[in-house]
Amino acid sequence: MIARTLDGAALARQIREQLQPQVQAFTTQAGRPPGLALVLVGDDPASHVYVGSKKTQGTDVGFRVDLHQRPATTSLDEVLALVRGLNADPAIDGILVQSPLPAAMGSDAARRVFETIDPAKDVDGFTAENVGRLVQNREGLVACTPAGIIELLEQDGVTIAGKRAVVIGRSDIVGKPMSLLLLHRHATVTIAHSKTPDLPAVAREADILVAAIGRAGFVTPAFVKPGATVVDVGMNRVSEEADVVGFFGEGSKRHLAWQQRGSVLMGDVHPAVADVAGALTPVPGGVGPLTIAMLMKNTLTAASRRVR
Ligand code: GUN
C-alpha cells in the first residue's frame, strides 16, 4: 500500500482564500483590519523563519501584523510589560509570543509570559483560561497545530467518532490539546509517551495515529496498523544529510526536499510508513502550513468576538 497524502499545504491555501473576504468584511465593518502582534525575543534561527512566515501570510490575508523583535538580553519584566501594553491596545486582537524564549530568562518564563496574555487575544490557545475551556469543550481559542490537524482530517473525510486514536507526545502545545479535540469528536483516545511500555504495540491499535515526539523517523512501520491515518507533527532539523540518507536509505529522498545550509527538515514518521499507512501527512507540506493558517483563523475569530 502507498499511503494517500494528506495535503496540508493545499488546505492551508484554501483556508487563507476563505479568510480573505471575511477579513475584508471585518475591516469595512470595524473601520480597521484585524490586528496581530508577533513577539520574537532572541535569535533562534527557526523562530525567525516561522515568525517571518506568520508576518508575510498575515499581511497577505489582510491583517495588520506588528512584529516586536527584541534582543536575547531582554529581561522577562520587559517582555511582560510589552505584553501588557498589547493587551491594552484596542487595535490588537491577537498576541503571539514565539517560543522558545531565551534560556537566560528562566525555565518558567514562557509560562509567565503566556499567562500574562489576555485570554481573548490568546491566538495560540496557551493560557490556562483557554486550555480550561478546551477541557470543558466550551468556546475559546484552541492551539493552532491540533486545530489544523482536525481540519485536515475532517476535510479528507477521515471518520473520528468511534475510532481508536493514539497521540504520541504529551506536550501542552500539541499532545494534550490534540487528545482533547479527538476526544470531543468521540474517538477513544490514548496518550502515549516516552515512558509507555511497548509503544509500538500501543500505537498499532490506532486508526488515527498522531506523532508529536520530536525525534526524526521515530515512528517506524512497526508502530502502524495497516490502513491507519498517520499525522506527522515532527519538524526535526537533522544537520548531517549523509547520516539521514544513510539512516533512511534510498527512496526516502522525496522526504528530504527541504534543505537549508546543510540541514534537513524531517518528520517523526519514518518514510517507510508510507507503505503501511492508509493516509499520511508529508513533512514538509503537511501539518506545518496548517498551523499558520489556523493562527490566521484564530486571529479573525478573536477580532470578531472583540467587536461584537
Ligand atoms: N514555537 C513553536 N511552535 C509554536 C507555536 O505554535 N506558537 C508559539 N507561540 N511558539 C511556537
The CATH class of the largest domain:
Alpha Beta
Question: CATH-wise, what's the superfamily of the largest domain?
Answer: NAD(P)-binding Rossmann-like Domain
Bound molecules: guanine
How many distinct folded domains? 2
The global form is: globular
Helix content: 40-55%
- The CATH topology of the largest domain comes to Rossmann fold
Give the CA-CA distance, first to last residue.
50 Å
Report the total helices. Answer: 10
Q: How large, in whole angstroms, is the Cα Rg?
A: 19 Å
Main sheet? 6 strands, parallel
Report on this model:
- This protein is of the alpha/beta class and 308 residues long.
- It folds into 2 domains: 30-118, 3-Layer(aba) Sandwich (Rossmann fold), CATH 3.40.50.10860; 144-287, 3-Layer(aba) Sandwich (Rossmann fold).
- It contains 10 helices and 12 strands.
- It has helices spanning 8-30, 45-61, 76-88, 109-116, 128-135, 144-155, 175-184, 199-203, 241-248, 287-307; strands at 4-5, 35-41, 64-70, 94-97, 164-168, 188-192, 208-211, 229-232, 236-238, 259-260, 263-266, 279-280.
- The strands form 3 sheets. It has a 6-stranded parallel beta sheet. It has a 3-stranded parallel beta sheet with strand order 3-2-4, with helices on both faces.
- Helix 1 packs parallel to helix 10 (287-307), helix 2 (45-61) packs across helix 10 (287-307) and helix 6 packs across helix 10 (287-307).
- The radius of gyration is 19 Å and the shape is globular.
- It starts with a strand and ends with a helix.
- The structure holds guanine.
- Guanine is lined by residues 96-99, 124, 144-145, 173, 291.
- Pfam families: THF_DHG_CYH (PF00763), THF_DHG_CYH_C (PF02882).
- One of its GO terms (molecular function) is methenyltetrahydrofolate cyclohydrolase activity.
- Belongs to the tetrahydrofolate dehydrogenase/cyclohydrolase family.
- Homodimer.
